[in-house]
Amino acid sequence: MPVIEAHLLEGYSEDERQRLARALTDAACLVIPANPDAVTVMIREVPKANYMRGGKTRTPAPARSDPCDQIRAYLAAMEARNIGTARSMLAEGFVMNFPAAPGLRTLEELIAWAKPRYRFVKKAYDNFEAFQQGQATIIYATGTLYGEWPDGTAFENIRFIDRFEMSDGKITRQDVWNDMAETKANLARAHN
Amino acid sequence: MPVIEAHLLEGYSEDERQRLARALTDAACLVIPANPDAVTVMIREVPKANYMRGGKTRTPAPARSDPCDQIRAYLAAMEARNIGTARSMLAEGFVMNFPAAPGLRTLEELIAWAKPRYRFVKKAYDNFEAFQQGQATIIYATGTLYGEWPDGTAFENIRFIDRFEMSDGKITRQDVWNDMAETKANLARAHN
Amino acid sequence: MPVIEAHLLEGYSEDERQRLARALTDAACLVIPANPDAVTVMIREVPKANYMRGGKTRTPAPARSDPCDQIRAYLAAMEARNIGTARSMLAEGFVMNFPAAPGLRTLEELIAWAKPRYRFVKKAYDNFEAFQQGQATIIYATGTLYGEWPDGTAFENIRFIDRFEMSDGKITRQDVWNDMAETKANLARAHN
Amino acid sequence: MPVIEAHLLEGYSEDERQRLARALTDAACLVIPANPDAVTVMIREVPKANYMRGGKTRTPAPARSDPCDQIRAYLAAMEARNIGTARSMLAEGFVMNFPAAPGLRTLEELIAWAKPRYRFVKKAYDNFEAFQQGQATIIYATGTLYGEWPDGTAFENIRFIDRFEMSDGKITRQDVWNDMAETKANLARAHN
Amino acid sequence: MPVIEAHLLEGYSEDERQRLARALTDAACLVIPANPDAVTVMIREVPKANYMRGGKTRTPAPARSDPCDQIRAYLAAMEARNIGTARSMLAEGFVMNFPAAPGLRTLEELIAWAKPRYRFVKKAYDNFEAFQQGQATIIYATGTLYGEWPDGTAFENIRFIDRFEMSDGKITRQDVWNDMAETKANLARAHN
Amino acid sequence: MPVIEAHLLEGYSEDERQRLARALTDAACLVIPANPDAVTVMIREVPKANYMRGGKTRTPAPARSDPCDQIRAYLAAMEARNIGTARSMLAEGFVMNFPAAPGLRTLEELIAWAKPRYRFVKKAYDNFEAFQQGQATIIYATGTLYGEWPDGTAFENIRFIDRFEMSDGKITRQDVWNDMAETKANLARAHN
Known about the structure:
The structure is a homohexamer.
Chain A: E1 3-9, H1 14-31, E2 40-46, E3 51-53, H2 67-79, H3 83-88, E4 90-98, E5 101-104, H4 107-114, E6 120-133, E7 136-148, E8 154-167, E9 170-178, H5 180-191
Parallel strand pairs in A: 1-2, 4-9
Antiparallel strand pairs in A: 4-5, 6-7, 7-8, 8-9
């Protein structure tokens, strides 16, 4: 217990059905601390011809892509400065909040803001997490930053966390926290 | 579509059943971008006497408390320096990672580490988020910090994000990011 | 076979559930010529707190009144010339088609049209039938007319059939056929 | 709500399953005034080998033909005076009730009765309706008649309604109403 | 797996429902060697008003008494020579087959047959087993006999097995095997 | 009623599913004396990819062989003195109880015990019955023995019943009752 049965229009791939089954398992365990072996999820695929809502047959909406994969692709495009690709993944009204730089609205603003702060920065990922809240998908990426300071010295192992919101398959918001200022303060102390 | 039916041992409160129904709705929407009005969740309560697993009746495990409420209580206890209360919520092997202070293992260590950094700090919460990943519950708290620097001047509106992992109802890990160093660097720049 | 399970929000009366069960049985038998003893209908009532559509609990819509009862009441009001009561049961845009009197739109028109045709007419009902077609409920009433011709002689046993359409609980259309003209022609032949 | 699941032996065509799904949708809406988009019907086909009643596997009974199609074919055969074809569709004990001609039992009687009334008559159909009541299928056909009076003058646009009862795939009863006498009376008045 | 759901008319006692759940669990395990903890049985009770077969509500048939209890009561009545009570539990056409005494039809015949064989015999039960086969319930009782030979010497520990068939709550057949003859032969050998 | 639905991982043969359906039918009838035509069993096969327990897909355990077939094979091997084959079907700790020979542990012991009792014995089977009790499968074989006494004279029509217990597909116990001693005693009486 619980035993969960999800009726689904036929047409989703095995991978999509398993993502659904895992998400339903996690949802059950969020509330019911059952022995994991006792949480059963069964997906029942209903052929299109055998399903009517309001007296009409329906076409299954294509499954969402894995949101972690989408964010991974966005961050890769940003790292590679493929601004066009990255921009195509953003929703109208997209907003970014970086440490001490709230309310950035365009990737160009972000790039201008970042310019004096480091020569380049890259992300080593530890973890991606995604979950749904009503209409929004929330994705967290955590890991460490590495790159070069403006003076060309290298840095690495600076913790970061990015929080994304997606809606209808587009990114609507990004919030970023990291230990860069902490690291710079430590460097400054070490120099003095 | 989808139509989700969850069979549950009788004994969960209305609030617990609704938390489950919402979590299952979110789980479905994470994968299937259905018109939200078309995502149906029905919970069927099975009386204890009408359910057997392995030929034996079973007792429903008490539902988990809302993990957001648990973290809220933990953070409140820490703010009030009710160390005993806070400690009772930690699992064996608990570890904390703060900016530039990885791997703290006891609340006493944390308090010692914090001492030279500020007279006090409090949290204004914007948002709590919780989801399950296998055996772990992940909780995020975001908001802003306010308090006093060691010299008694006030600060506020410093963004933070806390990530918690819980297992079996106990907190196993806390990761903290915030803009404190960024703020201090800005203050220092302003002073010079 | 078939075995039909209908999940319903809790709150419908026993009579309403049995009307539903009978309607579902009839629907199955319209297509599948199963041995009637093999057509099983089970209604499962889902408590309001155990049901969510789109992540929200829902309130069960009050069941429709039995449409045969509604038409019976309408016809009784008309017979008793309770025009106000009868009119309150009509939808905006209501239209009546009587033999040789198509397109009447108000009860007053109908009464005026009927005046020279008989002193009064009443209905002895044989049968009421109702079924649904998409958004419309169709009701048939059959039986015989009795009353008095303008000259005061009585008539009876004149077959009639009334077809009604209802939508959202209001009558949108009435079509009437009967053997009155046939009867009068026969009377005329008999007199000559 | 409601969510209706019909378990059916495998073997029915897509058209038959959709007729069933529509009939079940209509049945639900006859009683529950749900938002039509909220009425879900799912048909689950059970392979013959996976179904037992009384410990025995069962063979699915062939679906009934669409009763509207059957009546259409009967009326076409009658119009074309294919008496043999029409008669093959009648049940033992079949009875017809025409205006002023109740209780006709054979097609020959009907033809004899009609002979002095018109040279020929044909039907222009507006609508066919079918529904089930216990063991009987009820079918209504409405539309207008056109043809020639005995004197060869044409008539048209005379409203009619035919009610049929079928049982076990055969027609057991036909009741006919129309405005023919009304029309003739009007013609007579116009001539005088 | 398997997950078994049994829909039952409301009205069976908790004990009856648990006997059913256990019997269904055993039935599943007879064919599927699942981890017992993975065999789930859920009984869903359908209120009488929510169930129709063939368009008619049905009254739940009273559950069968536990057949082991019935056989226990029959054997107790026989041991106590309450012939009336015992006889009331027998179906028309009842037949008994004892070692070397096939085809006994009445309890009186049995008593007469037993008379020269022992002064009295009683049963110490090890085990009762019951299962269904189509319309018949099969019950096995095993254990040991004790009592006195005609000469008054005592015997004990003689293995027996009784097989019963019941139908419609009555015993239709009893077959008995035991080691009495073996024991007597051993006694005789010992005496010689 | 009852209506039983068994959800099963896809992969069982038609014969295995029908054995399951029959066993579930019998289980229901053991408790509920329903009109057999009203006991419905539906097996729903869930594709492996559509089923998760504890968040993991599972592989269906191969069905048990028909236990009656297994016992038949064991008894045939014993009759043919294919000791190796027979022994391979026995579980560790196997024990046999024969009339006046309790607690035999090896087939060799059994053969030695039988040697002075008859030249050979064979079984004519009337009936095999199998049912499950928790982890154990119980099988009964009944019929008659025929063969030759040590002196070469033939015997036949001696009733026997064998009870077997199996666990995990191996025979753990055999209990045997028969009328051999009774028959020999009768023969002796006849000779004297």
